Amino acid sequence: MITLGIDSSEAEGGVALIRDGMVLGEERFSERLRHSEELLPAVNRLTDSCGIGLDEIARVCVNRGPGSFTGLRIGLATAMGFSQARGIPVTGVDGTLAYRARVKAHRVCVIIVNRRDLFYARWFSGERASGDVEVVTRDDIVSRLSAERRGIVVVGSGAEALRDELSSLPAVEVAPPEANRASSVWIARLGEEKGDENELLTLEPLYVEPAIRTKTER
Length: 218
Prior knowledge:
Number of strands: 11
Number of domains: 2
Order of helices and strands: EEEHEHEHEEEEHEHHEH
Distance between the termini: 54 Å
Helix content: 25-40%
Structural class: alpha/beta
CATH class of the largest domain: Alpha Beta
Shape: elongated
């Protein structure tokens, strides 16, 4: 069974084809403002290069967030349209889980670039998340990781953006650069693991906004 993975949640996007966990091919694109123009041509280039017809794709999986508001809408709309047109299941995948799955450490912090000086962050202990996705500032995430006394691995596009600052912290290990790139392969793999459930009628993007402080809290 062939699965199409779609990730347009960040500045670098991509599509991938896998069969039973094995990667058949991947196509990446990196112009955030052109994801709507690049996504479908990337799928066509990928299927052509793999020698696979669109009718051979049995499932489509998409990163549902957190990430760029516009990028998530483009990815979900494309995946759901593909699902409807082909009559195949569509599955949404939490982007923090896709980053978490790439590292084998017990304690992990996923950090994803948001915008300007903000980042999405989520802590994991083993396979279980310690809480929901948060929106944090650069200073906040560096301060919190500075206070860590036990070893922790940080992974994600935000970890790469903060590599110089985080690498100097004694308890922190920054994942290798390749692990910190958005990956449609991992979206496809995690979606494939969810089975044949069709989320066409229930799939929604995971939007996370910064907490708004009241005047008395400032």
